[in-house]
Amino acid sequence: MSLLIAEEILNNELQLLESEHPGNFKMSEVKTSLLKSIYEIAKGEEIRTIVDNNYMTYDEVISNVHMKIGGELLAISMLIPFLISGNNDILNFKDALFKIGMSLQLLDDIVDLEEDIESNTQNAFLSYLLDNSISIQDITDYNNRNKDIQTHYHNLIYSAVQIGLDGFKDFEKNGLEIGYKDGEKLMEFMFINRKMQDEWKIYKKMKKEKGDIQ
Question: Using an 8 Å Cβ cutoff, are 87 and 103 in contact?
Answer without folding.
Answer: no
